[in-house]
Write a structure and sequence with these properties.
27% of the residues lie in helices and 26% in strands. The protein has helices spanning 2-8, 73-77, 84-93, 115-122, 126-139; strands spanning 14-18, 21-28, 31-38, 41-48, 68-71, 142-144, 149-151, 156-159.
Length: 163
């Protein structure tokens, strides 16, 4: 265990793991080239950055996998007075929902959506969107605050991708 601690503390660059297997480290310009070898044959190698700190706030992206949104059907069924148009507007706006707080934002700039932006996304008129938003507010499925429009978290949940 003392040898492992010496390797970890960077006192030695080679650690004998037994049975002829060694763990080696070469420092090059602030990076470490790590190798696992048996005799003279390198079994596995990789680069490591010893100065990189682990993030306490991991990124909220999906790593190339498609993102998903859960539309909670039972919550929709609790509102039979909701029109088909209102449900359709919610479905059209789902790609613009921000992680965590369900704020409606531009997909690229992440700025809160205005009514004119929502009209462009849904291809509906301003009076139609205002009427639909009033219906959603009455049902408690849409909230307007200082940040912007938010879809109720009881209705949708946004998350990372799955394969």
């Amino acid at each position: 265990m003392d040898k492992l601690l010496e390797f970890y503390n960077r006192n030695v660059n080679v650690l004998d793991l037994g049975d002829g297997v060694t763990l080696g480290r070469e420092s090059v310009r602030g990076m470490d080239f790590m190798t696992i070898s048996r005799g003279n044959e390198v079994l596995y190698s990789w680069w490591s950055n010893p100065n990189k700190k682990a993030s306490k706030n991991p990124p909220k992206h999906t790593g190339g996998k498609p993102s998903y949104v859960k539309l909670l059907i039972k919550e929709m069924q609790k509102h039979p007075e909701l029109s088909v148009e209102a449900a359709g507007v919610i479905q059209k706006l789902i790609p613009n929902v921000k992680w965590g707080d369900n704020l409606l934002v531009h997909a690229r700039s992440k700025k809160p959506l205005r009514i004119s932006d929502i009209c462009e996304i849904t291809r509906k008129s301003k009076p139609f969107i205002i009427k639909t938003f009033n219906e959603l507010k009455t049902a408690g499925l849409l909230i307007k605050d200082a940040e912007g429009y938010k879809i109720s978290s009881s209705l949708i949940q946004k998350g990372g991708g799955r394969k």
